[in-house]
Backbone:
């Protein structure tokens, strides 16, 4: 089991104030600069880009989408943003229309209620925790469509999938820097094998097509457990079970999920590679996220 919790504790307070100050400054600067999505005559792929956020996270969704539209060879045929309940769909549609992008917005209840009879525990979990809402949204949207789910704190540097993967893959997921799963569920269910994998998964970026039909009995058991307990990293645990079955992952260099920037000099280049497709700016790395987004906006694609 890969565990960097001791490392995280050791750097918890280092540079924290300056990072937060710089993050706020960069975020405000980006908000002051008009963000407009421009048609770049790129071909459209038949997939749905999806995410879920709070009201105060819509600017991050805009940044993430901007990076995808700028750097991917293809743009999605549909963009769906799920509200966690803190904003109404009409607000989100208007927010992006002003920036030149047509999106669909829906409440999390639309997704969760779809499973009220077929998997009631998922509905219960979604009513109790944001991770249940995220799980319901991803499954619901992928029931009949290919979905690329991306957390708002992900920036895109390339095309999400290879040409041959768009139609052939039912499931693909990114790799994490540590095993961040619901350890209580793992102990209760005897699922220690999840901690034995050399590549722990991260569900900040997920490509999925098939919805609930992709869940095996162990994944469903985990959802049932979460309806009652709402454990830590619960949805990531479900996806880890799914990953055991499908085994399709972006490499650590393709979708980067490291936190090592915290111990590097403040103005160091972020951890990126020649083949990086996306980076998940986890934990306290938002100061780098907003800096990278600003650099994208002032340089030519």
Residues:
């Amino acid at each position: 089991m890969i565990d960097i919790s001791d490392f995280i504790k050791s750097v918890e307070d280092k540079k924290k104030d300056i990072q937060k100050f710089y993050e706020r400054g960069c975020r405000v600067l980006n908000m002051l600069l008009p963000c407009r999505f421009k048609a770049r005559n790129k071909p459209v792929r038949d997939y749905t880009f999806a995410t879920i956020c709070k009201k105060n996270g819509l600017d991050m969704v805009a940044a993430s989408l901007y990076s995808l539209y700028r750097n991917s060879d293809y743009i999605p045929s549909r963009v769906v943003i799920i509200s966690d309940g803190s904003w109404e769909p009409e607000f989100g549609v208007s927010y992006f229309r002003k920036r030149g992008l047509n999106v669909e917005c829906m409440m999390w209840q639309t997704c969760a209620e779809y499973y009220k009879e077929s998997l009631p525990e998922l509905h219960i979990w979604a009513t109790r925790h944001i991770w249940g809402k995220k799980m319901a949204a991803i499954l619901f949207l992928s029931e009949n469509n290919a979905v690329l789910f991306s957390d708002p704190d992900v920036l895109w540097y390339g095309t999400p999938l290879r040409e041959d993967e768009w139609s052939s893959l039912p499931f693909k997921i990114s790799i994490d820097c540590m095993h961040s799963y619901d350890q209580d569920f793992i102990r209760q269910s005897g699922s220690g094998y999840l901690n034995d994998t050399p590549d722990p998964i991260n569900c900040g970026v997920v490509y999925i097509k098939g919805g609930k039909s992709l869940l095996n009995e162990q994944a469903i058991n985990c959802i049932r457990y979460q309806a009652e307990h709402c454990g830590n990293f619960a949805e990531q645990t479900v996806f880890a079970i799914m990953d055991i079955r499908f085994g399709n992952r972006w490499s650590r260099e393709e979708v980067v999920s490291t936190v090592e920037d915290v111990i590097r000099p403040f103005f160091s280049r972020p951890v990126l590679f020649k083949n990086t497709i996306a980076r998940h700016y986890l934990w306290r790395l938002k100061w780098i996220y907003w800096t990278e987004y600003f650099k994208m906006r002032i340089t030519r694609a």
In short: The first helix runs from residue 5 to 10. The CA atoms of residues 117 and 186 lie 26 Å apart.
